[in-house]
Structure formats: C-alpha cells, structure tokens
Amino acid sequence: MKPSTTATADRIYATGLRNQWHPVVPSRFVAPGAMRKVTALGEQWLLFRRSDGALSMLADRCPHRGAPLSLGKHLGDRVACWYHGVEVGTDGTVTSVPGLPGCNLEGKKLVTSLPVREVGGAVLAWFGDEEHPEPAELTLPEPLTDPAVDAFLCYAEWDVPWRYAVENLLDPMHGAFLHHESHTMSAGDTTAKFRIRETDRGYFFEKTDQRGVNFDWVELCRTGVDWVDLSIPYPPSAGPGGPFGIVGMVCPVDEQRSGVFFWRYRRVEDWQRASWRFLYKTLIEKRHWEVLEQDRVMLEAMPADADQRENLYQHDLGVVRLRRLYRAEAEAQSRRGI
Q: Which ranges in the chain are annotated with CATH 2.102.10.10?
C-alpha cells in the first residue's frame, strides 16, 4: 500500500495485519490451468495456476485501464485482459500489448505479485508493503509437516470480522457451554481459572485446574503466519491413535467476512492411519461440521460493535492479550505508512 493511501490503524485492525503470511483459500479452489478471483485483506486478487501446477497471485487489476484481470483469458503462463487484450505474466510483468506492439508498457512489472506457498492443502500468501516486499521466514505448524501426523482441512467462510474468529479460538471456556452437546465436549467442569503462559513463539491460554478433559488449552503461535494449536480429548469410539488436535488459521477477507481454516489432525501410524481416515470420513467429520456451525451461528449473530460494549472477566485474559497485541501492531504499521 503506497504512502498516498496510508491506512489508519483502525483500517488495518479491521482488514488484517500486513507484513506477514495469511491463508487465502484451499488449494483445491484453483485447478491446474485455471484462475480464480479472491478477496483478502480487503483487496481483490487473482490466483493463477499454470498447467504444471505452479501458482501465482496477482492484483486483480490490469495496468492499462484498471479492468479486472479475473475476467480475462488464461493463456498458460500469462493472462490476457478481456478489455484490450493486454497480457500479464505470472510475476506481474506486462508481456504484450497486442493493440500496440512495442508499447513502453511491455517488459515492465506493473502488477503486484505476492509470494505464495501451499501447505496442507491451503494457499498462503505474503502480504508485505513497499519496505517489506520480500517475505519473512515462515515456520509452518508442526502437525502439517510431520509425516507421522494425518490431517484433514476444513474450510468455511463466515460473515464475521476476522478478529472475532481468532478470538473465538482464544476462548476455551465457550467449549463447555456452546459445544456442551457435542460428542467430545460434554465432560469436565463448567468453572475454571486460567493463566497465560509465554512461549518463544506466542503464548498458551490454559486452565490451571483441568487438563485433558475438554477444550482446556490453546496456544497462539506467531511463526511468520498466525495460527493456533489446541487439543480436545477423543472417546474410545474414535479409534486408535494419539490425541486429537486442531490447527486453526483465519483469513481476513474484508472488514465483515472471514475465511476459517481448521486442520483436524491426529498422530497415527501404520494401520491406525487407515482406521482414523475411515472413521473421520464416515462418522467424525459430520460431527465436526456441526460444532463449526454452532460457532458460525453465534459469531454471525453478534453485533458489529460487540467488542465495544463488553464486561469482561478472568476467562477473557487470552482475548484481551490478543487484542492488545494486534492493536499495537496495527498502530505501528499505520505509523510506518503501510
């Protein structure tokens, strides 16, 4: 974002922090030889995949007259704008101006191109600024890179501000109430005390008087991309394997919409993997979507100013810490002219 369009801290806080990686959409949304228009951090983008599978992410704006490139034609290694045929390569360079060959637009990189990576079936992109165009180091969640862990990605889009979706994950106590009727969160005490425990990559928000019974802890991890890790006990009916965990990420689509990514994972080896995958697809996945639906209904029903008219207590320490952290970063980025 150029200095002439410097965002306020409120705008950054509403649409997502810059100078970090964010999840965008599941990889399956963009097939080989296809392209897809997406919105992320309040801006329009074009995901473009070559036939060999290589993925690019471009600003959805032709450098000629500003028409959406997403309405154009996929030409294998470039896209042709539908309006006047201007061709843009996957790195944002204008490769051809058919209406005026040799035009001085040719050979210039005039379209923003974001670094992208794919992990666990999701597209991650680096949203930097003019001072930070090169991506920072990205350390991926261990459950998504460990070959002994098997994970399923669940993706949904919610009509809620992105920070509400993240705050929901930093609020373990809602599991004992909102999800009380679910197959895994009916046990345990409905009262608790919590603490924040610092780590070298973020912090744990955890119950001090209960562990391994319900949604008893969550860790916020900031490793180039923001993600949370949590664990929920599984009953014997879920089959053999290690504890059940969730890695969660949130894409700030715009001020009022979020893309939520949940990888349900379990450490399983040999025959246990086949058992876990079978049980998940035939029985457990449906129950997980029912729990997610409870979260969606509650968060979408909350008013836009819900966080301005609260009365918080000890169980909300994790949320308060998160807000202070994100607000401070938004203010710092605004001062730097992002």
A: 20-127
**Residues recorded for the chain:** 338
Crossing angle between the packed helical segments 162-169 and 317-335, to the nearest 10 degrees: 140
pLDDT digits (tens, 9 = 90+) for 181-240: 876 666 767 788 999 999 999 999 999 888 877 788 899 999 999 999 999 887 777 788
Cα dihedral 297, 298, 301, 303 in deg (nearest 10): -150
Task: Give the predicted TM-score (pTM) of the model.
Answer: 0.93
The CATH H-level superfamily of 20-127 is Rieske [2Fe-2S] iron-sulphur domain (2.102.10.10)
pLDDT one-digit tens code per residue, 237-280: 778 888 889 999 999 999 999 999 999 999 998 999 999 999 99
CATH code reported for the domain at 142-331:
3.90.380.10
Q: How far apart are the first and last CA of the chain?
A: 6
Alpha-carbon distance of 224 to 201, in angstroms, equals 10
131-139 contacts, C-beta under 8 A, 24 or more apart: 131/336, 132/18, 132/19, 135/21, 135/224, 136/19, 136/20, 136/21, 136/224, 137/224, 138/21, 138/223, 138/224, 138/225, 139/201, 139/223, 139/224
